[in-house]
Design goal:
Helix content is about 5%, strand content about 50%. The protein has about 120 residues and is mainly beta. It has one domain (about 10-115): Jelly Rolls, CATH 2.60.120. A four-stranded antiparallel beta sheet has the order 1-8-3-6. A four-stranded antiparallel beta sheet has the order 2-7-4-5, with no helix packed on it. The longest helix is centred in the first third of the chain and has 5 residues, at about 15-20.
Length: about 120
């Protein structure tokens, strides 16, 4: 059974989007493409794993858009955030990520679903 009763669930992580382990910074990195007219992305959970140094991660409502979620953890730390009420992006808008500072081996994993809205 799908946790939100939706068959349009997805998961994406920075290693797959970038194509290798993430050792730099990111500005408006497109994590999940816009789902199409009349559809919205919903974020249900985020896992952040820091590398050798600390950095801040922000999930954005589109490239350069409103910050929907921000995480700042210390070096070599990890945290999973689960949202009882999913975070909804603006209709037909991509999910983007921006980071401040660099951390060798950091990763962000995002789970969610697409639905009308």
């Amino acid at each position: 059974m799908q946790p939100h009763g939706n068959s349009n669930e997805w998961r994406v992580n920075t290693d797959v989007v970038i194509g290798s382990a993430w050792d730099g910074t990111a500005t408006n990195l497109s994590m999940k493409a816009a789902p199409g007219v009349g559809m919205s992305l919903y974020i249900t959970d985020v896992t952040v794993i820091q590398g050798a140094t600390s950095r801040a991660f922000s999930l954005l409502d589109g490239s350069g858009g409103t910050v929907l979620f921000k995480s700042v953890l210390g070096a070599n730390a990890g945290q999973t955030y689960e949202f009882e009420t999913p975070i909804k992006l603006t209709s037909n808008t991509a999910l983007c990520l921006t980071s401040a500072g660099g951390s060798v081996g950091a990763m962000v994993l995002i789970g969610g679903f697409s639905n009308r809205g």
